[in-house]
Write a structure and sequence with these properties.
Chain A is of the alpha+beta class. The longest helix of chain A is centred in the middle third of the chain and has 18 residues, at about 465-485. Chain B is of the alpha+beta class. Chain B is globular. Classes of the chains: A alpha+beta, B alpha+beta. The interface of A and B includes residues 249, 745, 752 and 754 of A.
Amino acid sequence: MTEKFRTSQGTRVDRSKVINFTFNGKAYRGAEGDTLASALVANGVHLVGRSFKTHRPRGILTCGSEEPNAIIQLETGPRSEPNLRATQIELYEGLIAKSVNCWPSVNFDVLAVNGLASRLFVAGFYYKTFMDPKSMWMTVYEPMIRRMAGLGVLPREKDPDTYDHMNEFCEVMVIGAGPAGLAAALAAGKSGARVVLCDEQVEFGGSLLNSKEIIDGRPALEWVASAVAELEAMDNVRLLKRANAFGYYDHNYITVHERRTDHFGPGAKPELARHRVWHFRAKQVVLATGSHERPLVFADNDRPGIMLAASGQAYANRYGALPGKRGVVFTNNDSAYKVAIDLVDAGMAIPLVVDLREVADGELPNTARQKGIEVVTGAGIVATEGRKRLKAIEIAQISSDGEKITGAKRRIECDTILMSGGWNPAVHLFSQSIGKLRYDEEKACFLPNISSQKERTVGACKGTFDLQSALEEGMTAGALAAQDSGFGKGKAPAAPKAVVVAEKPLKAIWVVPTDHPVGQGPRKHFVDYQHDVTAADIMLAAREGMHSVEHMKRFTTTGMATDQGKLSNVNGLAILSAQLGKAIPQVGTTTFRPPYTPVTFGALAGRGINGDLADPVRRTPMYSWHLEHGATFEPVGQWQRAWYYPKAGEDMHAAVTRESKALRDGVGILDASTLGKIDIQGKDAAQFLNMIYTNAWLKLPVGSCRYGFMLKEDGMVFDDGVTSRLGENHFHMTTTTGGAAGVLDWLEEYLQTEWPDLEVYCTSVTEEWSTLSIGGPKARALMEELAPEMDFSNEAFPFMTWREGEVAGVPARVFRISFTGDLSYEINVRNWHGLHMWEKCMELGAKYDITPYGTETMHVLRAEKGFVIIGQDTDGTQTPQDLGMDWIIAKSKSDFIGRRSFVREDTKRPDRKQLVGLMTENPKEVLTEGAQLTYERVNPTPAPMVGHVTSAYWSPNLDHSIAMAMVKDGHNRMGQWIYAHDRGKVTKVKIVSPVFYDQKGERRDG
Amino acid sequence: MLYIKCPWCGERDETEYHYGGEAHIARPENPDELTDAEWAEYVFMRTNTKGVHRERWVHSDGCRRWFNVARNTVTNEIVAVYKAGEKLDLPDATAPVKAAAKASAKSPAPSEAKKPARKTAADKKEGA
């Protein structure tokens, strides 16, 4: 297909270099330098998408990152990417693109029937239509909304590209390389400071790329070229094109998304990282982010062919692509007259400018008149026609308050409207930096007012719309920013001289009337194009009580699409203000949040996209053995722990049953190396532990071990473990696997901030020691074979003591502690002996049929004994008393962390939730962990919940299901029947002691 | 992301640190002598300052030392960084006004000079 709308005038395209591409299945030709959008415009294609709710045909509206309509799915297969803006996609040979949000095609869209039912889709339709029943949400409503929305499709395949993160420092960060940004970078660069200049566009120049300005007597782009050349020659300046600064965080931390290879086509440069996310920490920031032209809100303002004025100008000047054959300019300000003039010069018919102002007597309107363009003032476009492309408009005089039509309607045939409702400075990054905005009545926009960080705004972003002032502001800000970061004397270089044509003020009419009141007839006034929000929706929201702009936003979803309301926010809140009878500043804006434009997940993930770099994986020295012997693994924090060791044909239940019985009947072995271990030394170590733990530590003999609870100051248990006295001033503390880092932090916090006088040193030794737990009635026999030199008799080596000796030929510490209730020894050897020790245990244990067991069996065995797991049976709201472990509190101690809280009213309450055991009426039925408990089977609504199941297992040794639970007043209710509820299923359970097995503790000594 | 100057290691990204809540709340030496309300004040109540807030940070992924930061909670500007036990005088204009107004007779005002009871042990040790 030929490029019917291509002129010879585009400054940034090379027509001699043809690029072939496919859009919605049809082949087209473009030119080098084109974006997908400009190539489509050159081919006369404006229908590029369907709207979100009502599937109305939509056309290209802008030429930049603010585009709400031309939303594209680019390419197919693993490199397919949804929701890109055609206005930012650079054309390359063979490009394949299609519209999102239309099915089966953009020309014939089945869901356009929604348009007929558009009354269903009023503001807040999510909340009203999809309310009940709740069960329909996940199954019916949400999938339906998703299919309707159709906002692109994610590839199913793995992302084949690589992505990088870069961390960098600079003195002056300049964001935006339009005239003001280039000037700022030049001024700052000359000072010698490290300067970064980034811009989201393909090349530097900003608005100058689109217009025909004159600087220093030459076309502005010549000045741009010389400025860029000057910057490139500076070693202290880093220039980033195609680099969108998407987040401005605290302390001048700025994130930039750089697209490095997309313009070569998918996979074209595999040696390069496709995207980079830059993390800059800047001493000073200059925001030169420019501005967005604002749409006018008039009747049926969303037809393909309706475009922002300056975007139409950009297509003609920059890309040599005329937006149409015959266009009408609709404006409330002078800037659009420049567009009319440029388009006439480019060869497009612009018979008419419709100006909302009563008077248009500035230099630009007069020049337009001289070009033969008719200017109609005090008028507006009150209706449009044409479904897939604009065909005609109706204009009429309107009252000076903008409320109604006062004159006769006049119909004009045209295929294009170029509209301008004024300019919104792109204050997004400024607002993200927590800068405060103010509303400027004359310019009818929000402007940066009070900076919160070390930052300056310049140019259009500051509301400085004339080119000369923008250049001067840029030079000044660049020099001052450099000076404030320690470079140069703050003297701004002379700014070049631009030709400036004075412009008269605009007139804000937020909703242009039509021949029926807004929302009461067929014509719609669109505010948010991407989310299909109309002026009527916003007015309805206000009537329904959404008086805050934040409420209005969420109720109508204005500004919540992928364009984040770059075009719609100010119009939306102005309409809300008018409806509420308040001034715009009183209503205020919504919060601007990162990202400024969408960033791919790949870029955010960086090299971590392949998973193995995302988070460290921790393995014990015995990992290889577990792997070779068929263990399944369970992640516990970063640790990979053996979960169970299934034999051929065994499922988890069978394996755990076998492992559980094996330990109780013979001997089992567990890799407990992941237990947190902290070496504690110093002359005050015992005194310190006395404050950290609830029980007494001063008199613990060397060679002994003690189990302890650590509390927070609120009296609640936060970790447990066994600590052993290695020497007078030397202890070995163990913690839960998951709690190890937190416990070390806790100890250090108290040592540094509360008791710096204490001489205590804490060192994490978790990975220095491998721990093997040998348990079961035959454990002693095995130990005797492993360490013939050591005495394992109860008399010589009693429970809760530890001994040092040679085990399997290597030095070891053996602790007689038990987490199963059976006779048990924990062998600790240096890490590099871990695997050796394990293999030796298996070898010598073979005749006892030693059985390796994993964490699941460990959980079952400990539950049989009622031993709590901190973090499973507790959640930070249990005192030791709640857990039935009053005995662990030393009554003799006057102080330890948390003690004082025990006598608070709340911790003394008798009806607190307490740890109990539960036995199901049906012995085979295993409860669900997390099941809620009630005292009665049938309850009023809302049911009085009295607790929940914390642990539940099948106990092979009892041949009965067992559970632990927190139950209100549970300790006083032993023997009572209560009810467990699991998604409608009710189970009768009896409250019992949590010690299910070996209640007298006779198995401990073997 | 904040950029915090550790007194020992220098400027580092916030991700290397952990926040430790309001500073200069010393653990009472004799908890038994406090009423429930006073104990609750120590355990649970914080000033929620709008303005310059004294708070504790620990350089978890660095030297693992605790130190104090005076940070403006409105702008996140860090006014000063000082070691545990060091004293920091700030001009009145930046003092936590609301915190002082909130203080009752039983819980002394959290301005440095007036609240020996809430100083940390580290403060006491180094005589600040």
